[in-house]
Amino acid sequence: MTERSEASEAIWSMTKVLRSTVVSAVLMGTGVILVALAMFPPFSAVGIVLGIIGAWFNLRFLDRSIAKISLDDGQSMKALRRSVRGPVLIRLGILTAGVLGLVILYTPVGIGALVGLMVFQFCFIVNLGRAQLASGGSE
Fold it and tell me: Is the pLDDT confidence value at 120 over 80?
């Protein structure tokens, strides 16, 4: 398999993972919000929604940066990964600082946002693992 077709397949696979992650995070997040409303302060549910939305925005930007990737310029996969890595780390840093700020300002909302981020990341990891298993494991 050529490097170009390998990259195309990786991009297509990642796009499918991102879309299924959003759907599963919304479904799982709805359940977590219902539990939070029943057992914790109501503002924790607001935090969960904020966390899921924040993670979705981060994943949306990642999806756009992946969609822009092309190997036409003769770049290697390593160089392309490096070009995506920096902006992702910056966004994650901003998201983390925002959640820590919420925890300090109003703890139920901050903890809820942290839970929302965890729900989204859990769904992302599960969907990545599912895609990896479907493609035949690591090669």
Answer: yes
